[in-house]
Amino acid sequence: MTYIKESLLVPENLDSWHIEGQYVIPEEQVYELKARLYPGGLSTKEAALEVGKGCKPYHILTAINKKQLNVNTSNVLNKTVHYVIEDASF
Are 33 and 45 found together in one domain? Predict the structure, then answer.
């Protein structure tokens, strides 16, 4: 519902949803939003699990902030999320 309120998704039946009981979202909008939300790579939690040896997500975030890891960034609804790119820096 938040994505609709923020106009990130626009239902085909926005004005009549209460009659049908659900929103109808065009498929291409869903794919576009998914690409914005997840630009590819490992989440900080996934990267920490991959490293192992007691590594925690905040260790990964520290490395990102120090520009020691290459990342893709998603910023939707004013929340920045980093995804670690698995390359030589990782």
Answer: no
Same domain, 45 and 85: yes
What does the H/E/C string look like for 22-72? CCCCCHHHHHHHHHHHCCCCECHHHHHHHHCCCCCHHHHHHHHHCCCCCEE
Same domain? 53 vs 67: yes
The residue whose two tokens read 């498929």 is 27
Task: With beta carbons less than 8 A apart as the criterion, state whether 48 and 56 touch.
Answer: yes
**Predicted TM-score (pTM) of this structure:** 0.72
Domain that holds residue 32: 1-37
Q: In this predicted model, what pLDDT tens digit does every residue of 34-89 receive, in sequence order? A: 998 999 999 999 999 999 999 999 999 999 999 999 999 998 788 899 999 988 87
Determine whether 47 is exposed, middle or buried from the number of CB atoms within 10 Å of its CB (0-12, 13-18, 19+): buried
> What is the amino acid identity at position 19?
I
